[in-house]
Amino acid sequence: MADNAELLKALADEIRGCKACRLYEQATNSVPGAGHPNAEVMFIGEGPGYNEDKQGLPFVGQSGQYLDYLLNLINLKRETVFIANVVKHRAPDNRDPLPDEIQACCGFLDRQEQIIDPLVIVTLGRFSMARYFPNAKITAIHGKPKYETRRACLPLFHPAAVLRNPGLRRDMEADFKRIPELVAEMKQRRQSAAPAPSSEGPKPSEPPSEPPVQLKLF
Ligand code: SF4
What we know:
six-stranded mixed β-sheet; 218 residues; alpha/beta; globular; binds iron/sulfur cluster
């Protein structure tokens, strides 16, 4: 059976060839996502920007630098988490993705979530928030997690919004610091819900034991 890294690579290849919506037409590269194939935390942004489109990697511009700063605050390295977007090709002139584009692309994100099976999904910005918290307002729900059977979803501001409005910085950093406690909580919940192991060997929900894999996209 294929392991998560292989499954994610095959999915990235599919994304690279996708023409299911108009966004591929003006993009330089697809940006399927990158990070650890068994990540406990998965971040979901909106869509690739200028730098992401050029490099084929998520969050590599100024927003990415701020995301790295935030990860550092909670002692997480980028290679240990997985970072993806709602749409995998850049929208022209950084416009918002349109509803039909989000709809066309959502199956890829569904499959990434199924493969990685993270303990915590962190949404960054309105469009990823809308996937898990329909009709909610980010100013009302940021930092307030929602619990599902196998995971928690935590809505956060988009790093670019915080860079544009430094008044959000304190809230963003306080919200971000909730991630470790949510990871611990969900780990506990899964363990208490899981049947006793019948044989030795790693359980699917255990922390990654293999070295981190950064998915190179080209
Ligand atoms: S944005 Fe998504 S649906 Fe649209 S072409 Fe790219 S991969 Fe396909």
